[in-house]
C-alpha cells in the first residue's frame, strides 16, 4: 500500500511525495471506515489523536 521514497532526505520534492502517499493512504482508510459505519469526522479525529500519541512517544531517530 505504501511505496518507498524515491528521493533522498533533504530533497524538497520528498516532502511532496510523502504528503501524496499519506493523503492516499488516509483516503483509503477513511472510505473503508465510512463504508462500515464510522462517520468521517470521528474517524479523522481518531487518526489525528493516534498520530499525536505516536509523535509524543517517538524518540529522535538515530538515538
Helix-strand blueprint:
Elements: H1 12-35, H2 40-57
Describe the overall structure.
- The protein contains two helices and no strands.
- It has helices at residues 12-35, 40-57.
- It is flat and about 40 Å long.
- The two termini are 28 Å apart.
Short overview:
By secondary structure, this protein is mainly alpha-helical. The protein has two helices and no strands.
Mean pLDDT: 93
Cα-to-Cα separation, first versus last residue: 28 Å
What's the Cα radius of gyration?
A: 14 Å
Uncertain residue ranges: none
Helix/strand-derived class?
Answer: mainly alpha
Main pleated sheet: none
Residue share in β-strands = under 5%
- The helix-strand sequence is HH
Provide the descriptors you would attach to this structure in a database record.
0% strand; 63 residues; mainly alpha
Amino acid at each position: 500500500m505504501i511505496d518507498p521514497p524515491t528521493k533522498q532526505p533533504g530533497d524538497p520534492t520528498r516532502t511532496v511525495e510523502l504528503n501524496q502517499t499519506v493523503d492516499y493512504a488516509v483516503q483509503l482508510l477513511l472510505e473503508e471506515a465510512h463504508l462500515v459505519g464510522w462517520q468521517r469526522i470521528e474517524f479523522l479525529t481518531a487518526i489525528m489523536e493516534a498520530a499525536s500519541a505516536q509523535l509524543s512517544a517517538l524518540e529522535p531517530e538515530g538515538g
